[in-house]
Specification:
Radius of gyration of chain A: 25 Å
CATH architecture of chain A: Orthogonal Bundle
Radius of gyration of chain B: 23 Å
Helix content of chain B: over 70%
Low-confidence stretches of chain B: none
CATH architecture of the largest domain in chain B: Orthogonal Bundle
CATH class of chain A: Mainly Alpha
Strand content of chain B: under 5%
Mean pLDDT of chain A: 87
Number of strands of chain A: 2
Largest sheet of chain A: 2 strands, antiparallel
Mean pLDDT of chain B: 88
CATH topology of the largest domain in chain B: MetI-like fold
Strand order of the largest sheet of chain A: 1-2
Number of helices of chain B: 11
Shape of chain B: globular
Largest sheet of chain B: none
Number of helices of chain A: 14
CATH superfamily of chain A: MetI-like
Order of helices and strands of chain B: HHHHHHHHHHH
Oligomer: heterodimer
Chain lengths: 298, 272
């Protein structure tokens, strides 16, 4: 291996190792430590001056107390469960809304498609925070949605949407919808139209042809879209803290508050480790789906 | 078969209405005279004036700009190198770990990335501020750059590069004169992505920023928590406008580049 190749590999490798991999080891280490009234606020710490003996001393003081605490305290497992529930339901609603949009785009006249594509990508580039913010003004008690519904006479009293779980669902669906639309559109646009014609010639009704041909052939896009919504939604922090209420339990918010408000670093570390363990399954499944899609293209 | 049916037209209209109405309302209400954000009090541009005089927002915007500028450049260089290693690196010790480290940050919850980087900076005793935000942003956006650039590297014909080497170019010259111009569109879109990610990021920055540096998203977040305000509406409108102009311009440029390339390929086919 020559020096040039070695340095080409070493620079990005060491960067990611130092700023991505090592930080995880630190989180894991702290999750095994105990909270303490010191700086940094946990114990044991590594005594570099004592060398190997110091390291062994630190390891011998590790325990799984924080994880036991997470398992026994209601707040945490309820937060994990409700995060999974909120992420799952929002992913499903995203699919219900995103699929018809992607389908409509793929079947729109060809000269419209670049514009439609641009219209989906535009929210994707627009600041996430601003899109969440735009919902606050819409969903509030005196917000425009309530004003509109009262004006058309559908309701007499304003609906309370903001600061409830409903607002969190709306927020996730609204901000993550483009992630669902794009992969589904990408598979639908490649769908061979003659297959549908053949099915209709052979006596399939239009709806039947849709369920037996279009849906199975866009499966890879549907799966990719679902994971692209589910994975970030599970650890979401901004949406529950801006749109949700005080009773909205989502693990990203719990982790943030554990660290900054309670200053309990070891417990925050343990919350992060468990969240990562929960995410490993969908991440591996997502990667496998991506690989299948790549192989199918070749 | 590509005709607009009643069903498709409805789903497109409703879908795009859902995506755009909330943002349109923010834009309309940024021109509202009244401080009450739900009552229309006549047209006015006074909130833009107040925004431009708000020192806190201006200095936060400047911090965000500096972070975005430096972190996106570092991310582009490192990400392009990373893509090169992924696609052309061959076998080396720890390759699986390397590709794992490239793909993992893309799906990692921001709270975990932020927390782990903060704990790293504290344990090595690095003071939090502008520098730590730049390091953090460069790290996660380089992975996005790598993914964008490697998809271009995979699809390009390697023999042109080999021809340059055969003709006596040094490996670096071959990269600069042959490979780089070919992958340049991907490098540029990777850079734009890195810049946008950095300008947008709230969660990671609020972990690693410390009290000395406040970015625009952190500032916006803390004022949104107090409720809707006309200044934020004005700021949002400006940002939406910048993104819209940028995206439309970028898509027009790529469209033109694709057309030019097709034309060049046609001419090459004819002459051969």
């Amino acid at each position: 291996m020559n020096l040039r190749r070695l340095s080409l590999i070493a620079v990005p490798y060491l960067w990611l190792f130092g700023l991505f991999f090592v930080p995880f080891l630190i989180v894991f280490k702290i999750s095994l430590s105990d909270i303490a009234l010191s700086i940094p606020p946990y114990t044991p710490t590594l005594e570099l001056s004592e060398g190997w003996a110091g390291f062994k001393d630190m390891v011998s003081k590790f325990d799984f107390e924080n994880f036991e605490f997470l398992a026994t305290d209601d707040l945490y497992w309820k937060s994990y469960l409700s995060s999974v529930q909120i992420a799952l339901i929002s992913t499903f609603i995203c699919l219900l809304i995103g699929f018809p949009i992607a389908y409509g785009m793929a079947n729109a006249p060809k000269e419209w498609q670049p514009t439609l594509m641009l219209l989906v990508i535009l929210p994707f580039w627009t600041s996430f925070l601003i899109r969440v913010y735009s919902l606050i003004g819409l969903l509030g008690q005196e917000g425009l949605l309530n004003q509109f519904l009262m004006w058309i006479g559908l309701i007499n009293d304003p609906l309370i949407i903001l600061n409830t779980n409903l607002a969190v669902y709306i927020g996730i669906v609204y901000t993550y919808c483009p992630f669902m639309i794009l992969p589904i559109y990408a598979t639908l646009i490649k769908l061979d139209g003659s297959l549908l014609e053949a099915a209709e010639d052979l006596g399939c009704s239009r709806t039947e042809a849709f369920w037996r041909i279009t849906v199975p052939l866009s499966k890879a896009g549907i799966i990719a879209g679902c994971f692209l919504v589910f994975i970030p939604a599970l650890g979401e922090f901004v949406i529950p803290s801006l749109l949700g209420g005080s009773d909205t339990l989502m693990i990203g918010k719990v982790l943030y508050e554990e660290f900054f408000s309670n200053r309990d670093w070891p417990v925050a570390g343990a919350v992060a480790v468990i969240l990562l363990l929960i995410l490993i399954v969908p991440i591996v499944l997502y990667q496998r789906n991506e690989q299948k899609m790549m192989e199918a293209e070749q | 078969m590509r005709r607009l049916t009643w069903f498709n037209a409805t789903s497109l209209t409703l879908g795009f209405a859902f995506l755009y109405i909330p943002m349109l309302i923010v834009i309309i209400y940024s021109f509202n005279e009244s401080r009450l954000v739900t009552v229309w009090g006549g047209f006015s541009t006074k909130w833009y004036g107040e925004l431009l005089q708000n020192e806190a927002f201006l200095s936060a915007a400047w911090v965000t700009f500096k972070v975005g500028f430096f972190s996106s450049i570092i991310a582009t260089v490192l990400g392009t190198m990373g893509a090169y290693v992924l696609v052309r690196g061959g076998r080396f010790y720890g390759r699986t770990l390397f590709s794992g480290m490239i793909y993992a940050p893309l799906v990692m919850p921001e709270v975990i990335t932020g927390l782990s980087l903060l704990l790293l900076f504290i344990s090595i005793g690095l003071d939090r501020g502008l520098f730590t935000i730049i390091l953090a942003h460069a790290t996660f956006s380089m992975c996005y750059v790598s993914v964008v650039v490697s998809s271009r590297l995979v699809s390009f014909d390697r023999s042109v590069e080999e021809a340059a080497l055969d003709l006596g170019a040094t490996p670096f010259e071959a990269f600069r004169l042959v490979t780089l111009p070919i992958i340049a569109p991907a490098v540029i879109s990777g850079w734009l992505l890195a810049l946008t990610l950095s300008l947008d990021d709230l969660v990671i920055a609020s972990f690693v920023a410390g009290p000395s540096a406040t970015t625009l998203p952190i500032k916006v977040f803390s004022s949104i928590r107090l409720g809707v305000s006309p200044e934020i509406n004005a700021l949002s409108t400006i940002l939406i406008l910048i993104v819209t102009v940028g995206t439309v311009a970028a898509s027009l440029t790529t469209k033109r580049a694709v057309m030019r390339r097709q034309k060049a390929e046609q001419m090459a086919d004819q002459s051969s």
